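Hey,
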Amino acid sequence: MRTIFIAALVALLAGCASTPADKDPTQLRLNDLETRVARMERIAANEVQVSQSLDEVQANLRQLRGQVEELEHTNDALRKQQRDLFGDLERRLNAGGAAAGSAGGAAATTGAAAVGAAAGADAAAGSNAPSPTEQAVYGQAFDALKAGSYSVAITGFKDFLHNYPGSSLADNAQYWLGESYYVSHDYDSAAGAFRTVLKKWPDSRKAPDAMLKLGYTQLEQKQYPAARATLDEVTKKYPGTDAARLAAERLRRIPAQPSQ
């Protein structure tokens, strides 16, 4: 009997010893907790990464919005500049036509603004009246400029200056050649044309406007010190004129430290 009891006890102990450790309820719970903790750590890491990516996206969006606002501001400035440019050109063209009407004569009866401008120039010159052929050639180029056919106007004024360099309309033709280059954004040629007016016809009635538009051209070329000097010279050399007033206005609009 004692032998049977001992054998049963040994068998019971052997059964307990052979029970796998991983089947222990406590160990199973620990394993489950470790698995859950690891999963939560992975989720947290992913959330941190997503948060960082979201911050980068928001930063990029802010940068893009800033670029859009800058482009919109630049576009508005360009539109205003274009309005000022064509408004100034229209004012000058209309002024040329008005001068022709007051001068009278054969050119005024034609009804063409370009030929009228030639009559106005003749009245200002007081002598050396242009021939009908000169008036016609000049008028065609002037009409092309008014119509916005700038390349045609450029060719017309250059031909006029080549064929009639001594005409009383030559200073006008040289000035409007510069205007034609200016509105075509050929600023180097425009600057050269305006300088020619000032060099060859310093006493011309177009000299103040030529110096003014030279200053405008230098601004377009980002030659800011030169532009300031030119516009300041307009205000001092031609006080009380429209050119001096426009030069003063443009000087006030030039930033103290313009971006290059």
